[in-house]
Write a structure and sequence with these properties.
PyrdxlP-dep_Trfase_major; binds pyridoxal-5'-phosphate; 2 domains; Aspartate Aminotransferase, domain 2; single chain; Cys/Met-Metab_PyrdxlP-dep_enz; 510 residues; cysteine biosynthesis; Aspartate Aminotransferase, domain 1; 5-stranded mixed sheet; cystathionine gamma-lyase; 7-stranded mixed sheet; alpha/beta
């Protein structure tokens, strides 16, 4: 413990023996291909890394194929200062380190970090004192707080996407505001309202409208741009590459909350983001049984800063939670594929059957192809395709999907829509939506998302009840907006459940 406090930026897990074990793993699954133009490539595809990184049999003295769960809080030193890379479990724990290597690999932080370190003359990334490029936290909120503390500084300014996670805006306004003197400006970074013209706009004009809104919000003291995509609960998309270019031009960092997409579908670091934050409570856990968070970056300076704060705050997950998350990630690809297929089927039912029947309106699903779509909707669908990870896009192409295919393509497990109230009354009228939610049988009425079981909620009165009413109105969060986290149950049961819920809530009234 004393060693870590006296040398705050050093990662104790890079002592003699530990570095040999992590470098042996990094020569197999983790390793960037160092030759030629493949600086940003892994030796293995996402699905392979998700199963093997952090679970190398060499980590276990028995050769076990499951990561050893190391519950020790402290570690023997053979002589003063001589140890296997671990001193005290808050600072570094073998199970958590295995999980952090896995995060770094899935988000692509490891290859970016290796490349950045090579430029600084460091040839063995396993020796980098701040760790492997991924960091585990006790919750997504702890990761968010750490990122804002590290990057916004004292008296800095944040340009944030408007429909940011409620807990994130709470931290921006009520913690970073008073404690760091940080101001936050909220900006619409989506195509949904880009331009506002109503006329058919060129792609360039649509892009420029987003760039203009972000640039108008940037000040001399702006330190970072904070975005989330897809957003919550409206599932708008933010063009990461475009915003990353703006961030670069103005010398500010881009942070992307990758919770809703999960690293299988989207890897923001590879699209130009500087730091990824996510709540692993959602898709990464996938079983609604772990609260956790993560940060990932390929920038050595950012990594050192957040790593220092991780140890200083001590908001780390238990070794058992880290172990559970390693176990969860082994099925991330299978879960995400099935939940995305189910969500697309449900979105298509809503768009093609429930909308014409007058039961719902404004179905939101990133991959949905509508019969008639506005230029902004087309642009958003194209963005949903281009922003997919290479691995996810390869899967979709293999399955016969394309960016313009009829009906659309699977792109995540979240669907939201407005229920058609019998009397489209006030903004706060929730009766019809409540009736719908209470009639669901397969879906459980609950907050959160990403689990194998379908969850349904009413953002106005549940996840977004703390958001300023005027801000909520602007985002379109009213008493008719319903958010569904589609599970991996049988797809016919899922669609039938929503259909009977709508019939009970809306149908009977008409
Ligand atoms: C849940 C969530 C968070 C916060 O994570 P916790 O693990 O609940 O602290 C942050 N961002 C998004 C998008 C989330 O959905």
């Amino acid at each position: 413990m004393t060693a870590t406090t006296s040398t705050p930026l050093s990662h104790p897990a890079n002592g003699r023996t530990a570095s040999s074990s992590s470098s042996s793993s990094s020569t197999t699954l983790d390793a960037p291909l160092t030759n030629g133009s493949s600086a940003h490539k892994h030796a293995h595809a996402f699905a392979t890394r998700a199963i093997h990184v952090g679970s190398e049999p060499e980590l276990s003295i028995s050769g076990g194929v499951s990561t050893p769960l190391d519950l020790s809080t402290t570690y023997r030193q053979t002589r003063v200062g001589e140890h296997k890379g671990f001193e005290y479990s808050r600072s570094a724990n073998p199970t958590r380190l295995a999980y952090e290597r896995l995060i770094a690999s899935l988000e692509g932080a490891d290859v970016l970090l290796a490349a950045a370190l090579r430029e600084q003359g460091v040839t063995d990334p396993a020796k980098f004192e701040a760790g492997p490029g991924g960091l585990a936290f006790a919750s997504g909120s702890a990761a968010t707080a750490t990122a804002i503390q590290a990057l916004a500084g004292q008296g800095g300014h944040i340009v944030s996407v408007g429909d940011v996670y409620g807990g994130t805006s709470r931290y921006q306004l009520k913690v970073a505001g008073p404690l760091q003197g940080v101001e936050t400006t909220y900006v619409d970074m989506s195509y949904s309202t880009a331009g506002d013209g109503g006329e058919v706009e060129s792609d360039e004009d649509q892009d420029q409208a987003i760039v203009d809104r972000v640039e108008q919000a940037i000040r001399p003291e702006t330190k970072l741009i904070w975005a989330e995509t897809p957003t919550n609960p409206c599932l708008s998309l933010v063009p990461i590459r475009l915003i990353a270019a703006v961030a670069k031009r103005h010398g500010v960092f881009l942070v992307i909350d990758n919770t809703f997409a999960s690293p299988y579908l989207q890897q923001p670091l590879l699209l130009g983001a500087d730091l990824v934050v996510a709540s692993s409570t959602k898709y990464i856990s996938g079983h609604s049984d772990v609260v956790g968070g993560l940060l990932a970056t390929g920038n050595p300076a950012i990594l050192s800063k957040v790593r220092f704060l991780q140890n200083a705050h001590g908001a780390v997950p238990s070794p058992f939670d880290a172990w559970l998350l390693i176990r969860s990630i082994k099925t991330l690809v299978l879960r995400t594929r099935q939940q995305s297929l189910n969500a697309l089927a449900l979105a298509r039912y809503l768009e093609e059957t429930a909308v014409p029947a007058g039961l719902v309106r404004d179905v939101r699903y990133p991959g949905l192809k509508r019969k008639r779509e506005s230029p902004a909707q087309r642009r958003e669908r194209e963005l949903a395709w281009t922003q997919l990870s290479d691995d996810a896009r390869r899967w979709l192409v293999r399955e016969g999907y394309s960016v313009d295919g009829e009906g659309g393509f699977p792109a995540g497990g979240m669907v939201s829509f407005h229920i058609a109230s019998a009397s489209p009354a006030s903004q706060t009228e929730t009766q019809t939506a409540e009736r719908f939610l209470e009639h669901l049988d397969v879906f459980t009425l609950a907050e959160s998302l990403g689990g194998l079981e379908g969850l349904a909620e009413l953002p106005l009165l549940m996840t977004h009840s703390g958001v300023d009413p005027e801000h909520r109105r602007k985002l379109g969060i009213d008493g008719e907006l319903v958010r569904l986290s589609v599970g991996a149950e049988d797809v016919d049961d899922i669609v039938r459940d929503v259909a009977q819920g709508l019939a009970a809530a809306v149908g009977g009234k008409q």
